[in-house]
Design goal:
Layout lengths: L6 H13 L14 H12 L10 E6 L2 H21 L4 H16 L3 E8 L9 H28 L3 E5 L6 H8 L5 E10 L23
Antiparallel strand pairs: 1-2, 2-4, 3-4
């Protein structure tokens, strides 16, 4: 029999989790302070990780030309993928222009990375693969901590997995060593307006063991 959950204790956290939104370009020009940025990054480092390996690292990009350069270089890789998919040139350019604007106009851009040197080493391929997957999960947990801390601090954010489609481009543009895998781009800043909540499945569709 499951232990009843103390609902009042969870209320504030659930409110933060439910009210967080992915902010896609509605940022204001208000500057994010170094102190606040360090606060949300510290929250990321308190995420759980396999073996307590803490395999994450975050590259902070504030410089406008640097953000634009990264966005445009990634766009060239995406363009090649769109050509393979036979996406129309009009649709390709529309999607690329939107991505470049979203990345380059964010007040702060974070590149979330996985440092493979911090993972356990195994001789067999099965465990090597498992170790990499759990390291990816650890980085994802750190990202979620960061997003929630940002939201609680009244910052908007958006988690984009675009680097997974062009890791070498990201490495070359930012000078990232081979043992560091770029996993995600996170945009961060103060935002304008309100964003309606996206639809969510009811918990009855996601829970498959009855403990009530």
């Amino acid at each position: 029999m499951c232990t009843p959950v103390d609902v009042p204790v969870l209320t504030s956290f659930i409110k933060v989790a439910k009210s967080r939104r992915s902010v896609k370009g509605q940022f204001s020009r208000r500057i994010v302070s170094k102190r606040l940025l360090e606060h949300v990054l510290e929250a990321a480092t308190w995420a759980p990780s396999a073996h307590n390996s803490q395999p994450w690292s975050f590259i902070v990009i504030r410089d406008k030309p640097a953000k634009r350069r990264l966005a445009e270089n990634m766009a060239e890789a995406w363009r090649r993928d769109f050509e393979k998919d036979k996406t129309s040139s009009t649709e390709t350019e529309r999607r690329i222009a939107g991505s470049i604007a979203r990345i380059s106009n964010a007040p702060v851009l974070l590149v979330a990375c996985l440092t493979t040197e911090l993972t356990q080493k195994y001789v067999d391929e099965k465990r090597k693969k498992c170790e990499y997957v759990i390291a990816v999960q650890s980085v994802a947990a750190a990202i979620q901590n960061l997003l929630l801390a940002a939201h609680e601090s009244r910052l908007g954010s958006c988690w984009m997995c675009a680097p997974l489609f062009c890791p070498e481009t990201v490495r070359e543009t930012l000078g990232i060593p081979d043992h560091v895998d770029p996993q995600a781009l996170l945009t961060l800043g103060y935002f304008k307006g309100r964003i309606p909540p996206p639809p969510r499945k009811p918990i009855s569709e996601t829970i498959h063991v009855d403990c009530w």
